[in-house]
Amino acid sequence: MALLEVRDLTVVFQRRGEQPFTAVDGVSFDVEPGQTVGLVGESGCGKSVTSLAIMGLLPKRGATVTGSVKFEDTDLLRLSGNQMRDRRGRDLGMVFQDPLSSLNPVITIGVQVAEVLERHQGMSRKKALTEAAGLLDKVGIPDPNRRISEYPHQLSGGMRQRALIAMALACKPRLLIADEPTTALDVTIQAQILSLLKGLVQDTGTALIMITHDLGVVAGLCDEVNVLYGGRVVERAERHELFAEPRHPYTHGLLASIPRLDAPRGERLMPITGSVSDNIPWDSACAFAPRCPNALDVCREVTPEQEWRGSRLLRCHNPVQPAAAETEEASV
Amino acid sequence: MALGATKKDRIDALAKSSVDDSGVSLAASAWRRLRRNPVFLVGLGITLLFVLVAAISPLIAPHDPSARDLIDQVVKARNEIPPAQPGHPLGGDLQGRDFFSRLLVGSQQTLMVGVLATLFGLTGGLVLGTLAGAIGGWVDSLVMRIVDVMLSIPSLLLAFSIGALFAHPNQFTVIIAVATVQIPIFARLLRGSMLAQRGSDHVLAARSLGVKPGQIVFRHMVPNSLGPVIVQSTLVLATSIIDAAALSFLGLGNPNDAIPEWGQMLGTSQEVLDSHPALSFWPAACIIIVALGFTLMGESLRDALDPKNRR
Ligand SMILES: Nc1ncnc2c1ncn2[C@@H]1O[C@H](COP(=O)(O)OP(=O)(O)OP(=O)(O)O)[C@@H](O)[C@H]1O
Ligand code: SF4
Ligand SMILES: [Mg+2]
Fold first, then answer.
1. Is A246 left (phi over 0), alpha (psi -120 to 50) or beta?
2. Which residue, of A3, A104, A145, B197, has the fewest CB within 10 Å?
3. Where is this protein localized, as stated in its record (chain A) (predicted)?
């Protein structure tokens, strides 16, 4: 049975005097215990909003969340504020994009880690601080006994992210959501943080939702991948399947835009043309149509529905054909 | 800060500086710039000198400030008061008391009133502003409506109005009047600081760990407001001192003039302003210099905290 079942998750933002804006539009996916699931898509496609909705962290006013988020048979969306607060940090943890601003500048690292333990495990400050040093050690922060009394600005970017990971995993949650945890870091540090995350979730059996716009991250980490476009899942597949044979034109474009070392000389990169601002509403069309090389007339008239094609889920009227993908690449 | 910015704009800008994601130690980077800032150093020097004088004035004052040693040199009818003479460098006042000693000891009252009024104002503003910012909704609307009305009245006028409400003015009614005027300033500052932090990344991260709202407010948000609060307190000390002096000057202060106070000294000297301007000059100069010291210090602290100037 799945650890997390997200069904028809929809988030509508409504600011006073403005048109309602659907940031997440009927997203469904499962996360099995211990599994790593990727949420991929370009900026603004609703990745962060999806994760905040699962965590119950969206503002109460101005954001309407519908659908269901079943975590071990409990619908998180139906929990009261207090009940959800008891679960955050204990059953579900989250790591954010910017490690610097996610730490409180005026509180020492040790106290920030200890706070979670005091909160959920009723530890005394003293015991929690000892435990905190152990946790910092586990995430690879050298000299943890000195570090616990330091402030965030005294740590490097990579160390800060390690500290945040320690906080999120302090109470051994069964699900960790990492929202672009390496985007703000140096390239060399990125790899270290990713392998740390990978090791930690493997050791502890924690399920991980990895949010990223970087398919390289997905390739190294995820078991299953959900590709989001304009607030909807447009393709879902096992990692190997997806990389070997992207079927949705958007996924195809994403993969084609990654420079590959093994690419034949002279092969041009194929970036996806246009930007999110070209999106048209999903109401009676495919939102990707203005940018899609495969677009047909029907794409601007009928909303594509999610359909199973073999073991993968696709939302497209005219998906890239497996063979076509080969010949297209070969002919460039 | 742009010229012509209103009192509210200045408070709001300061409140925003409580969200710091520059990644440097705020205190360290601010100090690095302050250390080389002559304006700050002058302000700091004046302030330290003032506090030192206030602390030791009873010991260094050459005479008892309430003793009428020179009373036989006062001839009211001929408008004569004791001139400067050996042992009395500034002469005596209208009651024949040593003027220099009274100036020195007067610093104590000024410091006490200024500090207490600021503390009370800060406490009141802290409670109101934190409540408004943390709870939001109608509490916020109500508190801020009142605060904004109070802020739109010139502070001195408001202090007079409150001071005049008391039938028997004394040192504490002065403190209450002056403190009340400062409450809306701190309330707006702290509320702005809470709002700025409410959507900040570190508060979101704390929420993602299940930290309770009360702890988020008091352990995560209030400490980040400390910098702006210190800046505002320094500036408020200057206005408190001026407001308190003005109340005493107008007779809304302590009626017992045995304990010297600069505003009151200035007030009683008005009778003889034409013939003996020095009696008015000295207390006025003291008030201005001390207020200037706090203002210089506060303004340079404000600049140092401004995110635009951080490195
Ligand atoms: N609080 C909010 N109020 C209104 N709109 C919002 C709010 N938060 C997010 N949005 C909008 O929802 C959309 C999805 O935002 P989201 O942050 O989920 O994107 P993302 O996929 O995480 O992108 P990025 O890669 O830039 O982080 C965006 O268009 C954004 O402007
Ligand atoms: S539905 Fe049409 S426009 Fe949308 S991705 Fe598929 S082919 Fe392209
Ligand atoms: Mg995001």
1. beta
2. A145
3. Cell membrane
* Cα A211 to ligand 1 centre (Å): 13
Dihedral (Cα; A270, A276, A280, A285), 10-degree rounding: 50
Indicate the range of A72-76, B201-205, B256-260, B281-285 predicted with least confidence: B256-260
CATH for B27-62+69-82+89-309 (3.40.50.1820, 3.30.1360.10, 1.10.3720.10, 3.40.50.2000): 1.10.3720.10
Q: Where are the domains of chain A?
A: 100-172, 248-260+269-331
Q: Which helix (H) or strand (E) holds B279?
A: helix B277-305
Q: What is the pLDDT of residue B92?
A: 83
Interface test with B, best of A49, A91, A92, A102 (most B CBs within 10 A): A102
Q: Give the pLDDT score at B199.
A: 85
Nearest to A57 among B23, B208, B226 (CB): B208
Calpha distance A5→A267 (Å, rounded)? 41
In b/e form, how buried is each residue of B157-195, taking b as 16+ CB within 10 angstroms?
Answer: ebbbebbeeeeebebebbbbbbbbbbbbbbbbbbbbbbb
- Any idea where the domains of chain B sit in the sequence? 27-62+69-82+89-309
Q: Across chain B, how many H-helices and E-strands are there?
A: 12, 0
Q: For residue B72, give the DSSP letter.
A: G
B26 reaches A (C-beta below 8 A)? yes
State the distance from the centre of ligand 2 to the C-alpha of A23, rounded, in angstroms.
20
Task: Output the CA torsion A233→A235→A237→A239 (10° steps).
Answer: -90
> Using one digit for the tens of pLDDT, what is the confidence trace for B71-130?
778 777 777 788 888 888 888 888 888 989 999 999 998 899 999 999 999 999 999 999
pTM of the model: 0.85
Give the residue from B20, B21, B31, B202 with the most A CB atoms within 10 Å of its CB, the best one to mutate. Answer: B202
For residue range B241-253, list pLDDT tens digits in order: 999 989 988 888 8
pLDDT on residue B1: 45
Residue B22: pLDDT band (50, 70, 90) is low
The alpha carbon of B101 and the centre of ligand 2 are apart by a number of angstroms equal to 90
CB-based contact B203:B221 (threshold 8 Å): yes
pLDDT at residue B15 greater than cutoff 50 = yes
Contact A134, A170 (CB under 8 A): no
DSSP letter, residue B82: P
| Amino acid A263: pLDDT | 57
Query: How many beta-carbon pairs below 8 A join chains A and B?
Result: 80
| A104 to B211: CB separation less than 8 angstroms, yes or no | no
Residue A29: name the closest of A58, A56, A9, A57 by CA.
A9
Rounded mean pLDDT of A154-160?
92
Q: Whose CA is nearest to atom 25 of ligand 1?
A: A43
